[in-house]
Design goal:
There is one protein chain. The protein is α/β, with parallel strands linked by helices. It has 3 domains: 196 residues, Rossmann fold, CATH 3.40.50.720; 83 residues, Orthogonal Bundle (N-(1-d-carboxylethyl)-l-norvaline Dehydrogenase, domain 2), CATH 1.10.1040; 133 residues, NAD(P)-binding Rossmann-like Domain (Rossmann fold), CATH 3.40.50.720. It is built from 17 helices and 14 strands. Strands 3-2-1-4-5-6 form a 6-stranded parallel beta sheet, sandwiched between helices. A 6-stranded parallel beta sheet has the order 11-10-9-12-13-14. Strand 9, helix 13 and strand 10 form a beta-alpha-beta unit. Helix 1 packs across helix 3. The chain is globular, with a radius of gyration of 24 Å. The N and C termini lie far apart (68 Å).
Length: 441
Amino acid sequence: MRIAMIGTGYVGLVSGACFSQFGIDVTCVDKDERKIASLKRGEIPIYEPGLEELVDANAKANRLHFTTSLAEGVAGADAVFIAVGTPSRRGDGHADLSYVYAAAKQIAEAIDGYTVIVTKSTVPVGTGREVERIVRETLPHADFDVVSNPEFLREGSAIEDFMRPDRVIIGTLSERAQEVMRALYRPLSLFETPILFTKRETAELVKYATNAFLATKITFINEIADLCERVGADVHDVARGIGLDGRIGRKFLHPGPGYGGSCFPKDTLALVRTAQEHGAEMRIVDSVVVANADRKKKMADRVVAACNGEVKGKTVAVLGTTFKPNTDDMRESPSLDIIPALQARGARIKAYDPAGMEEAKKLLSGVEWCADSYAAIEGSDAIVLVTEWNEFRSLDLERVKSLMKRPVMVDLRNVYDPATMVEAGFTYKSIGRSDPAPLKS
């Protein structure tokens, strides 16, 4: 089989590489000439564990190709995937579908013979219907079906998520299109992966509903964490206690500085806007959007409080700038709120991130970027642990203490044990856990 993947961003590149690993001939298309040239040289524009090796192996096997010519990629393809960006539209929060619709028109101009056009991009309900209209208007006699096939790839574990997914959602009532999609995903039958065929509109909504629900779980446990601090409870024990309930589950009950990334912020906002357009109330998700934005803005206050109410003239070491570990993605990261807020209060910022500093430099000014954790920590008055990279989990506490002016740590990911930190001589602040007393001998 042959497929074309329109867009070589996170979703398009990972999906294209994984389909090629299934033995399918894949052509990834992007209008960015520099990006395509880099991909042909084996240079991967995003950080994702295992992706470089996967791309290299399948390119050498002549199953994975890259081109700027959409016509070249689409010609003779059994299926064409639209995997372009759908960022939040400035001003109203709606998903910007201009790239999706432009791709649909170009695909219509290039298809020859029956083709399944698949929206892989995250799109609001009704987008598939509009894509179908555009293709039909552009090429009235075209033989095609439009299918919704949302992605559920977590940055940092995207390859595993594609190869061993919880489920595959395919939105189409066309038996012909279903046959093509079954063939594409047939390798997953080895793992008995559930494949759910639905109406197109249902599939489009599943993606938004999934992300909104997960964002709600995160926001819920963050608010419970705030209450724990007030009443002397431990949020981790609360999360464990409710997570053992099979109706709730343990995942996404980890307190922190608020969610970020490429999906949750824009998808929750887009879902709220879609509901408003159709006269439906989305009070819970609307509250989640507001609460999460407020939480990220308030994280700097925790740092200031740990520094006795004043950071002016003090040096703060920030460990981790990306929104989560194992990615270089800075989109909507809490660090984008925390660092400028501390700078506005007069703090000097030294920072280190294992993979995200090049992206962070484009978004944050006035930061001293360091070669490693200890370089960032040296001479600091406080440490703020923002992203839970593995290398931050076992810092040499004696060395850390010796490098600091004052041994203060604000752990926004609850990586360390409070009692251990106090015993080591640190002023330690975390999320949803009361201040510990020193361990008794």
